[in-house]
Amino acid sequence: QVQLVESGGGLVQPGGSLRLSCAASGSIFSINAMGWYRQAPGKQREMVATITSGGATNYADSVKGRFTISTDNAKDTVYLQMNSLKPEDTAVYYCTGGTVGEGFDYWGQGTQVTVSS
């Protein structure tokens, strides 16, 4: 089992920045990809960004150029740097871990991001 704990959410004004963190623990050797998904009220959960153990990244079109996913392997932590935030970025953000080609099996509890003036 892999445990994922997110932090860093909060309230920010449009145009502002936030950095989300996700600390992984447990059987980390069993995963080779991590990512961030989000779910806004009344909408389905959607992929925001993913990163593999080899460093390959993938972003949703809506966040390209504004968000950056990265990892600190020494700390078993994945980050999501979010810049130029928009009200439509408001959602609960979930950290996830899994295996390339087999999907994401592990999920954090989520952290709320609210972009509002």
Mean pLDDT: 95
Would you tell me the structural class of the helices and strands?
Answer: mainly beta
Order of helices and strands: EEEEEEEEEEE
Looking at how many chains there are and whether they match, the oligomeric state comes to single chain
Largest sheet: 7 strands, mixed
The number of distinct helices, counting runs of at least 4 residues, comes to 0
Global shape: globular
Into which percentage range does the β-strand content fall?
over 45%
Cα-based radius of gyration, to the nearest Å: 13 Å
**Helicity, as a percent range:** under 10%
Alpha-carbon distance between the two ends: 40 Å
Number of strands: 11
- pLDDT < 50 stretches: none
Summarize the structure in words.
There is one protein chain. This protein is mainly β and 117 residues long. The protein is 0% helix and 56% strand. It contains no helices and 11 strands. Strands 2, 4, 5, 6, 9, 10 and 11 form a 7-stranded mixed β-sheet that branches. A hairpin with a 6-residue loop joins strand 4 and strand 5. It is globular, with a radius of gyration of 13 Å. The termini are far apart. The mean pLDDT is 95.
Detail the topology: elements first, then pairings:
Layout: E1 2-7, E2 10-12, E3 18-26, E4 33-39, E5 46-52, E6 57-59, E7 67-72, E8 77-82, E9 91-99, E10 103-107, E11 111-115
Parallel strand pairs: 2-11
Antiparallel strand pairs: 1-3, 3-8, 4-5, 4-9, 5-6, 7-8, 9-10, 9-11
